[in-house]
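Module 6 notes. Inverse folding takes a fixed backbone as the condition and produces residue identities as the prediction. Think of it as a translation problem where the source language is geometry and the target language is the twenty amino acids. Below is one complete input and output pair. Work through it position by position during the lab.
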């Protein structure tokens, strides 16, 4: 992946002008669709949402602190690269590995805001590009496009529910293995 010298900015060619319409880059749209954040949105609504998003670049082996202004209140969507996030959520350790385009991070910070005590450290494993959706920008659509906000929030709930279901299934499988129950091991 060839990243420009700057770490912050827009993806080269991230937005294309077509007859007074602004069209996001295919990689941006691909990451949004892979994240399932835009399920049940029309293409016009996806473009409205995509135009609220900024792109952030990180170099391999870079460490990113929680309190950077660009990350406060932002949802992260991986475009390309690999990142690992280690966090403490109310003194409980949580880790997350982002490797596939569309992987989401900072969901709790995005939804919960300042209501939770979260400290995180992001380790960049490979040169990466992420989309950042600021909560304030999404909230700005409440009056003009409330259906976009509702869909995005509904899709975030589905995402978190899916993560919880997978974790529960993994816990059950580990328990079955350790205690040799259900005759599977």
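Target side of the pair, the amino acids:
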């Amino acid at each position: 992946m060839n990243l420009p010298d700057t770490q912050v900015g827009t993806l080269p060619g991230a937005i294309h002008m077509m007859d007074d319409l602004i069209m996001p880059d295919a990689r941006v749209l691909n990451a949004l669709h892979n994240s399932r954040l835009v399920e049940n949105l029309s293409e016009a609504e996806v473009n409205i949402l995509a135009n609220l998003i900024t792109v952030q670049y990180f170099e391999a082996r870079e460490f990113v602190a929680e309190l950077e202004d660009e990350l406060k209140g932002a949802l992260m969507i991986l475009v390309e690269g690999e990142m690992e996030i280690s966090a403490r959520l109310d003194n409980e350790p949580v880790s997350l590995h982002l490797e596939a385009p569309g992987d989401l991070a900072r969901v709790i910070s995005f939804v919960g805001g300042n209501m939770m005590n979260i400290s995180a450290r992001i380790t960049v494993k490979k040169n990466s590009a992420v989309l950042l959706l600021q909560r304030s920008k999404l909230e700005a659509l409440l009056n003009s496009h409330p259906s976009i906000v509702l869909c995005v929030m509904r899709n975030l709930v589905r995402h978190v529910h899916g993560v919880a279901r997978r974790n529960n299934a993994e816990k059950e499988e580990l328990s079955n293995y350790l205690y040799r129950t259900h005759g599977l091991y």
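Reference fact for the lab report: The beta strands are 8-9, 15-18, 21-24, 54-58, 63-65, 74-89, 92-98, 104-105, 118-134.
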